[in-house]
Model the fold of this input.
Amino acid sequence: MAPVLIAAGLVLGVLGAVFLAVTAYRISRSRLEIEKLVLEAEKERESILRKARDEARAAGKNLQQELDGEHEVAMKALRRKESEVERRAEANERQRERLAELEKELARRVPEVEKREARCAESARGLEALLEKAKSELARLSGMGADEAKSLLLEKLQREAESEARSFVARRLVNAKEEAERETRRILLDSIQRLSHTLTTEATLAHVQLPRDDLKGKIIGRDGRNIRAFEKETGVDVIIDETPEALQLSCFDSLRREVARRSMEALVKDGRIHPQSIEETVRRVEQEIQEETRKLAEQTLLEAGFGDLPAELQLVFGRLQFRSSYGQNQLQHSLQVMELCGHIADELNLDRRLARRCGLLHDIGKAADQGVDGTHPALGYELAKKFGENPVVCNAIAAHHDGVEVTSVYTTITAIADAISAARPGARRENTEKYFERMSQLEEVAQSFAGVGKAYAMRAGRELRVAVEAGKVSDEESVVLARRIAQAVEEKVSYPGEVRVTLIRETRFVEFAR
Done:
């Protein structure tokens, strides 16, 4: 029994030792796993902290860029406001100086006016004395009664006074017109200086829509480097204001403005906006527009029958597509003038092809670089002469606005066709109904005056010719009547530009020799 107990005790001891060993091993392994988990947790914590720091730095950088862009926009707006305030202050200062000069001039003229008034009063007293003397002498010589002589004398004096008054009014109208023209030029120059920005904005701006408003900061770039690069490459001013999801491109040259518009739209669509991509995009767009212009000019000239123009001159001609005058596209205007010249030449039995060529190229100078000094007839003449055009065509280009001497009948034809194309109804954003309504109004206004025989509205309502009856209207009265008609036109008729009122008075004597 004892050995059995001893054996059992040994077995239990061995089992206990094994259990203790296994337990110790498990505890040790658990500790290692715990330490491993602690290390992994520590690494994960470090990774999370590092990622959070990176995201915070990136968010801060983006926020800083947005703040920089907003600050740049705000500074530009502030600078524009400051410039506008300075311009207004300068204009006010000039106005004050002008008023001071007028006050001095008024003060200087007051004594002269007083002297004139004194002389007039003295002359009036002398005239009254002469009048009394004339009355007495007339009564003595004619044997008339005092009342009869007085009536006859007053009638004569009245006629003389009316004649002198008409002559005086005519002279004063001429002087007033000259003074008004001088003052008008001064006022116009001052007004243009003040309002040039406002008046030219619509004609010199292109609008670009943005898909998102935050792209404005990207377009500006860090420290404004992107917007400066774009303006340098395209030659236009980029205006970024508070208008949501939009910006404006300002330039007087419509071709450059079109290049800038397409380039900006391409950059916004691509999303990569930096100086290098700006330069590449602008160059690509310029080549695309140049190729489009070349193809358009080539096709147009082939259809017109003048495919023999030099390639360089064809490219210049194609640029007329990007030029306009009073809303009239210059390429279409040139084609219209060409056809009109051809029809007129046919009627006069002249060279139809030469006349059409004159009409086609008469405004080629408008396609020249707008940075070059000179009028469009002069620039067109230099271009045509450079490429060896016919001297008749060169003269038609140079003289179709009476700038130089006309040496050919084709120049006169070109000028007539140019005027017809520009003045026809609808050519310059005016419908036919308003055109005829204005013509009728002009004639009705003139015919409402006494003494007017006939009235004709001419040159698309730019001139009103009025024929008066010579027996009812004298030469002195004609001056006053012309001015009254012009004033009535200003008050009653709405028209663009100006209307020239030409009053015609003539007396005809007809006899027949048999």
